Amino acid sequence: MPRTYVRESNRVQWSESDRLLAINSVMGGRMGYLLASNIYNVPKSSLEDRIKKIKRGKSKEVKPRKENPVLLVLDGHATHTKNLEAIELTCAYGVIMLCLPPHCAHRLQPLDVGFMGPLSTFYSQEIQ
């Protein structure tokens, strides 16, 4: 019988909203890289790399403003909707948060339904 080996990862799980909060805290001068990475559980190297890209102007991230708002579509997970600091930050920077109802994100996410679903189907057919 073959052995099965499950590798346990020591990587920290972090969310996109935590990364954005960490970036805004560092760029706003409220804390340094190490403190932000510890508070928001974001790897320090990832935080440094992203901020370097933003400062060089090579980041593909959108820069929302009150006069030029951005729509952010989220699923209804509690980490997205119950983080008061994230909600206040999005309001301050002109980001409109739209939360999808629970248990229907798979039906409402346009890329999953309109692009990734057919791509996956056709790819599976081609490799068989």
TrEMBL record:
Residues 21-53 form the HTH psq-type domain. Signal peptide: none annotated. Pfam families: DDE_1 (PF03184), HTH_psq (PF05225). It comes from the Eukaryota. GO terms for molecular function: DNA binding. InterPro entries: DDE_SF_endonuclease_dom (IPR004875), HTH_Psq (IPR007889). Residues 65-126 form the DDE-1 domain. This is (apollo) hypothetical protein. It comes from Parnassius apollo.
